[in-house]
Design brief:
This protein is 53% helix and 9% strand. It is built from 8 helices and 4 strands, in the order βααααββαααβα. The chain has helices at 11-18, 23-29, 42-51, 53-77, 108-118, 123-131, 136-142, 153-167; strands at 7-10, 82-85, 102-105, 145-148. The strands form 2 sheets. Strands 1-2 form a two-stranded parallel ribbon. The N and C termini lie close together (10 Å). 17% of the residues are buried.
Length: 174
Protein backbone atom coordinates (compact mmCIF):
# COMPACT_ATOMS: atom_id res chain seq x y z
CA UNK A 1 0.00 0.00 0.00
CA UNK A 2 2.88 2.37 0.75
CA UNK A 3 4.15 1.84 -2.79
CA UNK A 4 0.71 2.93 -3.99
CA UNK A 5 0.90 6.22 -2.08
CA UNK A 6 -0.95 5.14 1.04
CA UNK A 7 0.08 6.20 4.51
CA UNK A 8 0.29 3.15 6.80
CA UNK A 9 0.25 3.32 10.59
CA UNK A 10 1.62 0.28 12.41
CA UNK A 11 -0.54 0.03 15.55
CA UNK A 12 2.31 -1.75 17.36
CA UNK A 13 4.39 1.40 16.84
CA UNK A 14 1.54 3.58 18.14
CA UNK A 15 1.30 1.32 21.20
CA UNK A 16 5.07 1.56 21.79
CA UNK A 17 4.89 5.35 21.55
CA UNK A 18 2.01 5.30 24.07
CA UNK A 19 4.00 3.45 26.72
CA UNK A 20 5.50 6.61 28.23
CA UNK A 21 2.07 8.27 28.35
CA UNK A 22 0.72 5.33 30.34
CA UNK A 23 3.86 4.50 32.35
CA UNK A 24 2.53 5.39 35.81
CA UNK A 25 -0.50 3.14 35.36
CA UNK A 26 1.53 0.40 33.67
CA UNK A 27 4.10 0.39 36.49
CA UNK A 28 1.31 -0.28 38.99
CA UNK A 29 0.07 -3.21 36.92
CA UNK A 30 3.51 -4.61 35.96
CA UNK A 31 6.19 -3.17 38.29
CA UNK A 32 8.96 -4.74 36.17
CA UNK A 33 7.98 -2.43 33.28
CA UNK A 34 10.03 0.32 34.90
CA UNK A 35 13.74 -0.37 34.46
CA UNK A 36 16.36 0.61 37.02
CA UNK A 37 17.16 3.65 34.87
CA UNK A 38 13.51 4.76 34.87
CA UNK A 39 12.92 3.68 31.28
CA UNK A 40 10.27 1.35 29.90
CA UNK A 41 11.36 -2.28 29.84
CA UNK A 42 9.33 -3.49 26.84
CA UNK A 43 10.65 -7.04 27.24
CA UNK A 44 9.34 -7.29 30.80
CA UNK A 45 5.99 -5.86 29.76
CA UNK A 46 5.71 -8.20 26.78
CA UNK A 47 6.63 -11.23 28.91
CA UNK A 48 4.07 -10.33 31.59
CA UNK A 49 1.36 -9.87 28.96
CA UNK A 50 2.14 -13.10 27.15
CA UNK A 51 2.33 -15.13 30.36
CA UNK A 52 -0.97 -13.95 31.86
CA UNK A 53 -4.09 -13.21 29.85
CA UNK A 54 -5.61 -11.17 32.69
CA UNK A 55 -2.54 -8.93 32.86
CA UNK A 56 -2.63 -8.60 29.07
CA UNK A 57 -6.27 -7.51 29.21
CA UNK A 58 -5.57 -4.91 31.92
CA UNK A 59 -2.49 -3.55 30.10
CA UNK A 60 -4.45 -3.32 26.84
CA UNK A 61 -7.22 -1.45 28.68
CA UNK A 62 -4.64 1.00 30.07
CA UNK A 63 -3.01 1.54 26.67
CA UNK A 64 -6.16 1.65 24.52
CA UNK A 65 -7.14 5.31 25.10
CA UNK A 66 -3.58 6.44 24.38
CA UNK A 67 -3.34 4.32 21.23
CA UNK A 68 -6.75 5.43 19.96
CA UNK A 69 -5.76 9.06 20.57
CA UNK A 70 -2.62 8.56 18.44
CA UNK A 71 -4.62 6.83 15.71
CA UNK A 72 -7.22 9.60 15.66
CA UNK A 73 -4.48 12.24 15.40
CA UNK A 74 -2.92 10.28 12.53
CA UNK A 75 -6.32 10.04 10.79
CA UNK A 76 -6.89 13.80 11.17
CA UNK A 77 -3.47 14.52 9.64
CA UNK A 78 -3.97 12.24 6.61
CA UNK A 79 -3.76 13.95 3.26
CA UNK A 80 -4.64 10.87 1.25
CA UNK A 81 -5.57 7.25 1.76
CA UNK A 82 -4.41 5.50 4.91
CA UNK A 83 -4.36 2.05 6.42
CA UNK A 84 -3.89 0.69 9.92
CA UNK A 85 -1.61 -2.32 10.21
CA UNK A 86 -2.93 -4.21 13.23
CA UNK A 87 -2.81 -7.89 14.08
CA UNK A 88 -5.49 -7.32 16.72
CA UNK A 89 -7.70 -4.96 14.69
CA UNK A 90 -10.97 -6.75 15.46
CA UNK A 91 -9.98 -7.94 18.93
CA UNK A 92 -9.19 -4.37 20.01
CA UNK A 93 -12.22 -2.94 18.18
CA UNK A 94 -10.00 -0.67 16.07
CA UNK A 95 -12.02 -1.72 13.03
CA UNK A 96 -14.59 0.78 14.34
CA UNK A 97 -12.18 3.54 13.23
CA UNK A 98 -11.90 2.16 9.68
CA UNK A 99 -13.96 2.74 6.55
CA UNK A 100 -13.04 -0.73 5.29
CA UNK A 101 -11.05 -3.73 6.49
CA UNK A 102 -8.66 -6.06 4.73
CA UNK A 103 -7.58 -9.38 6.22
CA UNK A 104 -4.03 -10.12 5.09
CA UNK A 105 -3.38 -13.82 5.56
CA UNK A 106 -0.33 -16.04 5.51
CA UNK A 107 0.46 -19.49 6.83
CA UNK A 108 1.16 -20.03 10.52
CA UNK A 109 4.75 -21.04 9.71
CA UNK A 110 5.26 -17.80 7.78
CA UNK A 111 3.73 -15.73 10.60
CA UNK A 112 6.07 -17.44 13.08
CA UNK A 113 9.07 -16.72 10.84
CA UNK A 114 8.11 -13.05 10.45
CA UNK A 115 7.48 -12.48 14.16
CA UNK A 116 10.69 -14.16 15.20
CA UNK A 117 12.66 -12.19 12.59
CA UNK A 118 11.18 -8.91 13.83
CA UNK A 119 11.71 -9.33 17.55
CA UNK A 120 13.30 -11.76 19.92
CA UNK A 121 10.43 -14.02 20.85
CA UNK A 122 10.34 -17.58 21.92
CA UNK A 123 8.02 -20.22 20.50
CA UNK A 124 6.03 -19.93 23.72
CA UNK A 125 5.53 -16.19 23.18
CA UNK A 126 4.59 -16.68 19.54
CA UNK A 127 1.99 -19.24 20.61
CA UNK A 128 0.66 -16.84 23.25
CA UNK A 129 0.45 -14.07 20.64
CA UNK A 130 -1.46 -16.36 18.31
CA UNK A 131 -3.80 -17.41 21.14
CA UNK A 132 -4.62 -13.73 21.82
CA UNK A 133 -5.92 -13.35 18.27
CA UNK A 134 -9.13 -14.43 16.65
CA UNK A 135 -8.76 -17.38 14.30
CA UNK A 136 -7.86 -16.29 10.77
CA UNK A 137 -11.17 -17.67 9.54
CA UNK A 138 -13.05 -15.26 11.84
CA UNK A 139 -10.89 -12.31 10.78
CA UNK A 140 -11.56 -13.21 7.14
CA UNK A 141 -15.30 -13.44 7.85
CA UNK A 142 -15.33 -9.96 9.42
CA UNK A 143 -13.13 -8.26 6.83
CA UNK A 144 -14.44 -6.52 3.76
CA UNK A 145 -11.79 -8.27 1.66
CA UNK A 146 -9.16 -10.97 2.14
CA UNK A 147 -5.76 -11.49 0.54
CA UNK A 148 -2.78 -13.79 1.02
CA UNK A 149 0.88 -12.85 1.29
CA UNK A 150 2.15 -16.42 1.00
CA UNK A 151 2.85 -16.14 -2.74
CA UNK A 152 5.43 -14.45 -4.91
CA UNK A 153 5.52 -10.67 -5.15
CA UNK A 154 3.73 -10.68 -8.52
CA UNK A 155 0.77 -12.64 -7.13
CA UNK A 156 0.65 -10.41 -4.06
CA UNK A 157 0.42 -7.34 -6.31
CA UNK A 158 -2.57 -8.90 -8.07
CA UNK A 159 -4.17 -9.73 -4.71
CA UNK A 160 -3.71 -6.12 -3.55
CA UNK A 161 -5.34 -4.80 -6.72
CA UNK A 162 -8.24 -7.23 -6.36
CA UNK A 163 -8.74 -6.41 -2.67
CA UNK A 164 -8.66 -2.65 -3.23
CA UNK A 165 -11.20 -2.95 -6.06
CA UNK A 166 -13.41 -5.14 -3.85
CA UNK A 167 -13.26 -2.49 -1.10
CA UNK A 168 -14.11 0.28 -3.58
CA UNK A 169 -10.71 2.03 -3.65
CA UNK A 170 -8.92 3.16 -6.77
CA UNK A 171 -5.68 1.33 -7.48
CA UNK A 172 -3.33 4.30 -7.13
CA UNK A 173 -4.83 6.48 -4.46
CA UNK A 174 -7.69 5.63 -2.21
Amino acid sequence: LRARGWSVLDVDDAASESLLDALPELALEVPAVLSAGGLVDKGALFAAMMNDAAVRARVEAILRPHVVSRINAWIQALEGPGALEAALLFESRLDELCEATLCVRCSRDERRRRVQARQSTSSKHFDAMEAAQLPESEKARRAGAVMSTDGQLESIEIEIETALKQLGFSLRSG
